[in-house]
Design a protein that fits this description.
Layout lengths: L3 H15 L5 E6 L3 H14 L3 E7 L7 H11 L4 E5 L1 H8 L5 H21 L4 E5 L4 H5 L20 H5 L2 E3 L7 H10 L4 H4 L19 H20 L8 E15 L2 E14 L7 E2 L4 H14 L3 E6 L13
Parallel strand pairs: 1-2, 1-4, 2-3, 4-5, 7-9
Antiparallel strand pairs: 6-7, 7-8
Helix pairs in contact: 1-2, 1-8, 2-8, 4-5, 10-11
The structure holds xanthosine-5'-monophosphate.
GO molecular function: ATP binding; GMP synthase activity
Subunit structure: Homodimer.
Pathway: Purine metabolism; GMP biosynthesis; GMP from XMP (L-Gln route): step 1/1
C-alpha cells in the first residue's frame, strides 16, 4: 500500500539511478508546497548537486522572500535567492491587461531563471514540481490562450537550455504531496500554505503595476493573512488575499476629506480551486481586518468583501 515513507525511499532510489553521478540539477523554487517538496526529495537523493533558484519577482507577499529563503536554508538546501524585482517592474511598466501582465511576468521569469541557471556548471537536468493534476489539467480556466500554471512550469525553458526534465511528483495528488513533504520534514509554515498564483500580486493589482501599489497591497494583504492566522481561520479557507482596485473613493479622517484607494478582500473555500464558495467569515473578524487596514495602511480608506462564488466569478480578479 502507498505510504509517504515508501514513496520517499523508492523515489530517492529512482532519482539516484536516473541522474548521472556528476550531473547537476536545477530547480525553480517558489515558496509553494510542490516545488519545496520536490526540492527536499531531490536533496535527499543528490544533496548539493541540487541547485535551487528562488526568484523575487517583486510580486510576492510581504516578507515572503526573506522568510521562505531562510526556511530553505534552514532545511540545508543549496538555494540561491535572486532579487529581480526591478527587472519585473520594468517589464510591467504601463501594462494593464491581465494577459499582457501574465506574459510579461512569465517572460521575465524565464530570462532571470535562465541567466541564473547558466551559472551552474555541469547542469544537465531541470527539475519541476509538477503534480498529477497539472499533468491532466493543461486546459485553461481563464481563456484558451492561458495555462493556469504556465508560470510555474516554465514552459519552453528545458528546450532552450538543453536540459532534460525530471518531475518526481508527477504521479502524486496534492494531499499525497503534503504527506510526502511532512515525511521529509518540511515545516508546517510551507506545508500548509495556501495556493498562490505564479504572477503573484501582479494579478491582484487591477490595472497597471507600480512599486508603490505593490507596497500598499502587501501591507493590506499582510494584515488580512496575519489576522486569519491569529484567529485560527487560515487553515479553514482554501485561499485568501487582498485585491487592490483601480478606484479611489471619498472618506473622512479627522476633519479632512480623503480620496484614496479601495481594497477588496477575497477568501474562498474549495476542494481543488475549480469551483469555490466565498468564505463565510465572521462579521466581527471582518470588522477587525477592515479597521486595522484602514488605520495602518495610509492610502487605503475603504475595504470591501467579495461575496462571489466560482463559477461564475473566478478566485482571482484578473
Ligand atoms: P481562478 O482565478 O481561475 O484561479 O479561479 C484558480 C486557481 O488558480 C490560481 N491562478 C493562477 N496560478 N498562474 C498561476 O500559477 C496564474 O496565472 C493563475 N491564475 C489563477 C488562483 O490563485 C487559484 O488558486
Amino acid at each position: 500500500s502507498w505510504t509517504p515513507d515508501h514513496f520517499v525511499d523508492s523515489a530517492v532510489l529512482a532519482l539516484q539511478h536516473t541522474i548521472g553521478p556528476t550531473d547537476q540539477v536545477i530547480l525553480g523554487l517558489s515558496g509553494g508546497v510542490d516545488s519545496s517538496v520536490a526540492a527536499l526529495l531531490l536533496h535527499r537523493a543528490i544533496g548539493p548537486r541540487l541547485h535551487g533558484i528562488f526568484v523575487d519577482n517583486g510580486l510576492l507577499r510581504q516578507d515572503e522572500f526573506a522568510t521562505v529563503l531562510k526556511a530553505y536554508e534552514g532545511l540545508g538546501l543549496n538555494v540561491t535567492g535572486v532579487n529581480a524585482a526591478p527587472e519585473f517592474y520594468a517589464a510591467l511598466a504601463g501594462l494593464s491587461d491581465p494577459e499582457a501582465k501574465r506574459k510579461a511576468i512569465g517572460r521575465t521569469f524565464i530570462e532571470v531563471f535562465d541567466r541564473e541557471a547558466q551559472k551552474v556548471t555541469g547542469a544537465a537536468w531541470l527539475a519541476q514540481g509538477t503534480i498529477y493534476p497539472d499533468v491532466i489539467e493543461s486546459v485553461s480556466v481563464k481563456g484558451p490562450a492561458v495555462t493556469i500554471k504556465s508560470h510555474h512550469n516554465v514552459g519552453g525553458l528545458p528546450e532552450k537550455m538543453h536540459l532534460k526534465v525530471v518531475e518526481p511528483l508527477r504521479m502524486l495528488f496534492k494531499d499525497e504531496v503534503r504527506e510526502v513533504g511532512a515525511a521529509l520534514g518540511l515545516p508546517g509554515e510551507i506545508l500548509n500554505r495556501h495556493p498562490f498564483p505564479g504572477p503573484g500580486l501582479g494579478i491582484r493589482i487591477l490595472g497597471d503595476i507600480t512599486p508603490e501599489k505593490v507596497d500598499l497591497l502587501q501591507r493590506a494583504d499582510g494584515v488580512f493573512i496575519n489576522l486569519l492566522k491569529e484567529h485560527g481561520l487560515y487553515s479553514q479557507v482554501w485561499q485568501a488575499g487582498a485585491m487592490l482596485l483601480p478606484v479611489q473613493s471619498v472618506g473622512v479622517m479627522g476633519d479632512e476629506r480623503t480620496y484614496e484607494r479601495v481594497v477588496a478582500l477575497r477568501a474562498v473555500t474549495s476542494i481543488d480551486g475549480m469551483t469555490a464558495d466565498w468564505a463565510h467569515l465572521p462579521y466581527e473578524f471582518l470588522a477587525e481586518v477592515s479597521n486595522k487596514i484602514i488605520n495602518q495602511v495610509r492610502g487605503i480608506n475603504r475595504v470591501v468583501y467579495d461575496i462571489s462564488s466560482k463559477p461564475p466569478a473566478t478566485i482571482e480578479w484578473e
